[in-house]
Amino acid sequence: MWPGNLIIYELAEMGTCLLRCGLPDRLTGMRGDERIQDGMFSYVSLEQRVPQDHPMRAVRKLTDAVLQTLSPEFDALYADSGRPSIAPEYILRAQLLQVFYSVRSERLLVEQIDYNLLFRWFVGLGMDDAVWNHAVFSKNRDRLLTSYVAQQFFAEVNKQARRFMCDEHFTVDGTLIQAWASQKSFRSKDRSDDGDGTNFHGQSCSNKTYKSTTDADARLYKKSYGKESKLSYLGHALVGNRNGLIAAAMVTHADGYAERDAALLVLAEMHAGRSRRITVGAVKAYDTKDFVSTVRELNVTPHVTKNDKGRSSNLDRRTTRQPGYAISLSRRWLVEKGFGWLKQTGPLRQVKLRGLEKVDWLFVFSCAAHNLIRLPRLMAQPPKMLRERCA
User: Fold this and answer.
1) Suppose 303 and one of 25, 94, 274, 328 were both cysteines; which one would form an S-S bond, judging by CB atoms 3.0 to 4.6 Å apart?
2) Is the pLDDT of residue 166 over 90?
């Protein structure tokens, strides 16, 4: 058959198909033809659907390496008999997607996994695998994700990022996490107040005499003067000064001493087993006598912003005259950058979980997701550039 006759034959077959579908004949002109989606089989796998240069490929590779090391820990969490649960690897990958893509709820997350091929590929499901019910997924998530599992996952991620983290120079800070509770729920512990909790005028509302009936672990707190008080938690992070990766994280009740107490805890754990002195930068709220003296006892040099407005600072020229002091203060923005990502992209502007333990695992897990999403780009940079950025 001649090529011209072959083209005419194919056009005739196409016109017959369009006429069978009840569509007008558009064999002439540049407008494309609309086809009915009636195919039952697909010969393209999920692996082929995802582009080779997609940024989630590197994240998936790192995640699989972390989950493989945690497999013995998962085995100890589940019984030897009973109905099979959702695989913990599926749950953790799905939770990472929820953080990366700012998915607001588990219901929407499960819906996205059902029809989003990228989500299916990242979680590890096949094209025809059934997706779980959102309530079943949430129940299995609550059983698996405890503070211990989140800390283990965070530690394994940091092992993957060890060569990109600074082991001598750090910055510590805290951020306010709004609780999933309204101001109306902040009621007197002895039920002596009248009304529905909407009018606080003329009342002395203290965390000692009041508590939230919705989330008993939340505390009424404000981060700075001139701001409104909110039912909140405090998240704390220790960030390396080289690339801004989070080295330690935890959540505490919100009060005026929590930031300094949490900083001492993470610094003591970070410096355990070390002989060399490390440095830590912080804002002027950490410039107190107790904090400065305690970190020095831990063999840590405090590079704290001096608070000498109307008072004398607890730092003297022995510390502030060193070049490293100015460098540490210039790198303090790295911790704010991490907090910005956790609240803008991540789920920590206002958590949808109640209780200190659940908020703690969500914060630690989100910090692990922050490090995971940054690792592929750091791995692609030349080693010389990474060394130059160390403060």
Assistant:
1) 328
2) no
